[in-house]
Amino acid sequence: MKISRVESDRAMVRGSESDAHILPADRPKGLVSSKKRSERHLSPLEQGMVVAEEALADVPDTREDIVNDLKRRIDEGSYKVNGKDVADMMLRRLEADRIR
Asked: Does 69 reside within a domain?
């Protein structure tokens, strides 16, 4: 999933206030997988972070198949955008951001 700059900036501003409620005070900083292999005593949280980091390492930032399909459809002139659908999605995104 790609996060927009607006969502990212909003998370950075609100991050410090919400982190205190959901993250443990002694949470690992940075990439856990960058720890030396000699440090075998990982907490359950760190073990979960290692699994997540390894899974995310193989996920591309963009889904090239979807991007290429959209480019092809735009070039062909077969990609039609309905203004009402765009407006609906913008309003839904705005509402979702308010909830978070």
From this structure: yes
For range 10-18, the mean pLDDT = 55
What span, in angstroms and rounded, lies between the C-alpha atoms of 5 and 77?
29
Q: What is the pTM of this model?
A: 0.36
| Nearest to 34, CA basis, from 23, 44, 42, 26 | 42
Res 50: pLDDT = 87
In which domain, by residue range, is 71 found? 62-100
CA distance 2 to 59: 11
Tokens representing 58 are 């193989």
Kindly state whether residues 100 and 66 are assigned to the same domain: yes
Residue type, 63: R
